[in-house]
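2024-03-11 09:14:02 DEBUG pipeline.ingest accepted 1 chain
2024-03-11 09:14:02 DEBUG pipeline.ingest length=256
2024-03-11 09:14:03 DEBUG pipeline.predict start
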Amino acid sequence: MANNVQNYENQKKWYSFKEYNWFDWYAFTLFFVYSLSVAFFIYDLITALLKPYGGYYAWTTIDKFTDQSNILLWFYMLFSIFFKKHSFLKNNQWLLSNLTYIFFTFIGYNVILVGFAGYQYGPDPYDAFSSVWYHVISPITYFIFGFLFFYLYKDKQPQSYWKSMLKQMVYPSFYVVYIMFIPFVMNTSGMVDNQGQPIGTYAVYGNFTNLKDKLPVALPVILGMWLIFFPASFAMFYYSWIGFNRSKLFKNRVSN
């Protein structure tokens, strides 16, 4: 009986606002920031379903790494606020993995697609606003959260670098397999776009991931993303945390 009471008291502390500090309230604010990202996703999904070939367009909304990485931020903040002692948060693996994923969203869109490929943030005010929210505001606010976490929670990074790095590679690996094969298996025969033109081969990010028709372009991009970008990004965040701990600038910081 005593153990049950103690377990109940511990569970209550998972979501007790009375114990929150300023950093917890920042996380609580981010929960609402990323809730808007989820709202954008739901709206886009419903809008897609109302179009001709609604199932096709709904799927092309769901399979975007941007949407998925932003939704992961929402789930992370949900657990970090209301379930602070949950095993999902153990060793802060999820924190580092999310930093890697949202960094890919930030660089992949703002630098590669907009900077080099000439993409736009959106043809209308809603598309532009939601795109900036997804690709600029959400990543930057989470970067601030991550580096504040590095500063406040000394030596709390996962102890095994390689084990942690391989864990964060699970999701990108599944995603890479998906974007490699979807051009070959998505059936778009007989389908036309809003201008009446055949949709043709579907690839998640156009020629950059179209192994079926643009192999010389797509293969180096996909392999570079998978084998170089994700491991290197994770290493950058992981060793940044260690750098915070060793920096003389923060030598008088009290570890939490």
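2024-03-11 09:14:41 DEBUG pipeline.report The CA atoms of residues 3 and 9 lie 10 Å apart.
2024-03-11 09:14:41 DEBUG pipeline.predict end
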